Amino acid sequence: MEQTLLQSAIDNAVFVAEFIGIVVLLVFAAYLMEKAAKKRSGVSERILSTRKVAVCGMFAAIAAVLMVLEMPVPFAPPFYGLDLSELPVLVGTFAFGPVAGVLIEFCKIVLKLLFKPTSTAFVGELANFVIGCSYLLPASAVYLLRKTRRQAVIGVTAGTLCMTVFGTAFNALYLLPKFAQLFHMPIDEIVRMGTEVNPAIDSVTMLVLLAVAPLNLLKGGTISLLTMLLYKKVSPIIKEGKRGRRTA
Questions:
Q1: Other Cβ atoms closer than 10 A to 146
Q2: How far apart are CA 89 and CA 133, in angstroms?
Q3: Distance between CA 188 and CA 35 in Å, rounded?
Q4: How far is it, in rounded angstroms, from Cα 204 to Cα 172?
Q5: Where are the alpha helices (DSSP H) in the chain?
Q6: What are all long-range contacts of 37-44, with beta carbons under 8 Å and residues at least 24 apart?
Q7: What tens-digit pLDDT sequence spans the chain (248 residues)?
Q8: Among 178, 161, 168, which Cα is nearest to 220's?
């Protein structure tokens, strides 16, 4: 019994360390992306100012509340759900850049854990963070090239496709095996939960193709549409009413 508890503690500590390492890598990737964009455009504005940090904190709090309000979907087992927490994160990313976006995404996870402790040994939180970033970073990379409505549409479309493909593969190759490891349960048991929802789900591959992929596609499409409807209206408020060139 003691050996099992010790092994569980070690497994969880290693997983948390991996989580932190992934956060650092994504922040660094976002920093390089933003520095390159600013160098190309000749903009010398600081990546993070005091005001940006304060507004990012507000976005993170809103996103955390939305993450808690996760909704079940009929085509996936109960440990998957739809939330709209990427909406304020994407708005903040478009307004302040990819570094701010990744930091909002991370702070969202931390605040969510204060509202509602993890029930998945942090696997669900890692999934939300990494897959969220796989949507935000491509979307912001395209939008940074030229801040127009057309580029924004292309960006969110690219982000949705990246999130769908990456999220599907990440679940199959890392998240589901890690969840099974941390909870000491056969992965077949996880697949069985999917089979109860959809009899066609009979393997990990079918689980991610028939549950994870459509969930990410639905989430990305919904967030993209809402962002396109809201961003132009809230952008002047976020940027203190300053009007520069026309943006999406």
A1: 14
A2: 10
A3: 45
A4: 6
A5: 2-41, 50-68, 86-96, 98-115, 123-145, 149-170, 176-182, 187-197, 204-207, 213-238
A6: 37/97, 37/144, 37/145
A7: 555 667 777 877 888 888 899 999 999 999 998 888 888 877 667 787 888 899 999 999 999 999 999 999 999 999 899 999 999 999 999 999 999 999 999 999 999 999 888 888 788 899 999 999 999 999 999 998 888 999 999 999 999 999 999 999 999 999 999 889 888 889 999 999 999 999 999 999 999 999 999 999 999 999 999 999 988 888 777 766 444 444 44
A8: 161
For 81, phi then psi, to 5°, come to -155, 165
Tokens of 152: 């924004």
Residue 54, classed as helix, strand or coil, is helix
CB atoms within 10 A of CB 206: 15
Give the separation between CA 216 and CA 228, rounded to whole angstroms: 18
**Structure token pair of residue 5:** 């508890």
- Cα separation values, 93 from 86, 138, 161, Å: 10, 11, 18
